[in-house]
């Protein structure tokens, strides 16, 4: 599913024109252009500043409604989106897997059509099946934001990770990025690989063989798979530890003790990376499993900044998908505002 | 519809003199510049605010801080303007609490920008006072807002446009009055009338 993309000229004030790359849905990083990613990150910086205001709530999206459709349990992503909506003044309606008619056998299509019939201005969707957000976007008129679909993509996580890297490193271009863990089942890793490789980052994947299959190399050019974590961390600027999903540990091939022994991110191992390397984790953390307390709470950890940046990224995204005049019509080029329109 | 120039409202020299006068007025009527700060409203309010601060430094030897405000998030017409909203950063390098603030903008028209700017400032704190300084007041207010400091007043019709050009953005200083003119279907030449 391609993101409908139009470059639209916008007039600010009397005569200045600025190009704002606009898109209707956010389904994945893969279908975004580099320009669109940069644009979203730039705009997110403005919302970062708002997180520091004494009064953080805006009325910008007053009267708008955003549906949060969480077909799969989620705490932090849901709260982050709900808070982003609240800070922009939008109302939210929440559909949660355990309390919905999904349990009564309603199809995904019927559920999203029902949500759309309540006339929200956007639908934020989390689903256990890869491609669920694309499926919904192809059938709905309302903008769809993918909040994680199966093992496919989690675009807002990759954007908030990029924003965190941008803050700490000054740029996201040409960094050495090491991702450790269950890459094969991680939509976070997949979105991050798409995003960071676009900016010339050299990506190293590390983890148990069954979690780092050769196919991952085809995601982007130049991806390395390295077996030993000590080698994988060599010269890393950014280290990303993924959450080990406990249910996958039951596979007889791998025990938790073995994972800790071979892949846990410890202070000793982190010393292989550059001295100014930063540590990211999408959360929620299994302390003592994929990451040691001393790393999670150490000076190189940006894990809480990631959470704060998540708000900024989601506010920027909601503002651009819901704040404009075209929330319910596709992106036909429109005329810029007239001179002296605001004043 | 096309836009035609009607007349020049201010030349570069007149604009400079007007800004000098406004700077004097602001200092005179502020009862001390200790807590005074200027807030330029993006875009053309920003260079104007810097010029006011510059002339205050020159004639009064005072350092008046200048902030920059983008009011996009506070506009009341976001869902009706015909373009994707594009945000620019607001940079206010001082605490607004208990400050004597002067909002600086190029044109005062409906008053909606000033309203939005005040809302934005209140999200940052509780200023002691907010006053408004504009280069041109063109009338047609839609809100109970007036400027404390006005460079010049121009009588306009709703179809007219006051265009302020500043050298920092437009390469030259001047204020023009423009008009929107409907494109008429060409009349037939007089000789062909029967």
What would you report as the Rg of chain B, rounded to the nearest angstrom?
Answer: 19 Å
Helix content of chain B: 25-40%
Mean pLDDT of chain B: 92
CATH architecture of the largest domain in chain A: 3-Layer(aba) Sandwich
Assign the CATH architecture of the domain at 12-25 and 33-73 and 93-154 in chain B: 3-Layer(aba) Sandwich
Characterise this structure.
The complex is a heterodimer of chains A (343) and B (194). Chain A is an alpha/beta fold and 343 residues long. Helices cover 35% and strands 17% of the residues of chain A. Chain A is built from 12 helices and 11 strands. Chain A has helices at residues 34-50, 76-88, 108-117, 132-139, 155-169, 187-198, 229-232, 246-249, 256-263, 267-270, 293-296, 303-322; strands spanning 5-12, 16-23, 65-70, 91-96, 122-127, 144-149, 176-180, 202-206, 224-225, 238-241, 278-280. In chain A, strands 9-8-7-10-11 form a 5-stranded parallel sheet, with helices on one face. By secondary structure, chain B is of the alpha/beta class. Helix content of chain B is 26%, strand content 29%. Chain B contains 4 helices and 8 strands. In chain B, the strands form 2 sheets. Chain B has a 5-stranded parallel sheet with strand order 3-2-4-5-6, with helices on both faces. In chain B, strands 1-8-7 form a 3-stranded antiparallel sheet. The model of chain B has no long low-confidence stretch (mean pLDDT 92). Classes of the chains: A alpha/beta (343), B alpha/beta (194). Chain A binds chain B through residues 8-16, 18, 20, 22, 43, 45-46, 49-50, 53-56, 58-60, 316, 319-320, 323-327, 334-337, 339-343, and chain B through 3, 43-44, 70-71, 73-75, 77-90, 105, 107-114, 116, 119, 122-125, 138, 161-164, 169-170, 178.
